[in-house]
Amino acid sequence: MRGLAVRFLNACDARGIMAVTAESCTGGLIAGVLTDVPGSSSVVDRGFVTYSNEAKTEMLGISAETLAAHGAVSRETALQMAEGALARSRAGLALSVTGIAGPEGGSADKPVGLVWFGVAVSGGSTQAERRVFPNRGRAFIRREAVRTALELGLAALGEAQTSAGRP
């Protein structure tokens, strides 16, 4: 994972932009992986850990209507999380993640392993991606969410992904 984090940080640095994270089910793991790399302070602006709906509303400006209509684990929430993080930081790229890491909390519509990702780029569009990871435990789902978020960030920066074809 460190190599992926270094690639992401280098890609941001090469473009002169800072990154921000808005995390729910990963609980700050993306920011943690990035800030494990020495010198990351020149690229990482901040990270928002918005585990509760209240935190999503207060810290990122997610509308109560979005949460009521679509839930915390949804395309709409992931998009608003990324946009809210970008608007509330000095960053040029925002990564958001919201999902169900388990072992409980899943449903037929939103199973354990469902994660929505948002990527917002300053001056560009905001994209959302949906993944359903195999339910191999909470740690596995969270680790895969971190990996996927960094890969999506690299893709938004025009960098090739490193593990195409993985779940």
UniProtKB/TrEMBL annotation:
Q: Cross-referenced Gene3D superfamilies, in alphabetical order? A: CinA-like
Q: Which InterPro entries match?
A: CinA-like_C, CinA_C
For this protein, the record's SUPFAM superfamilies field holds:
CinA-like
> CinA C-terminal domain spans which residues?
7-152
The domain of life is Bacteria
The protein's name is CinA family protein
- Say which species the protein is native to: Pseudaminobacter soli
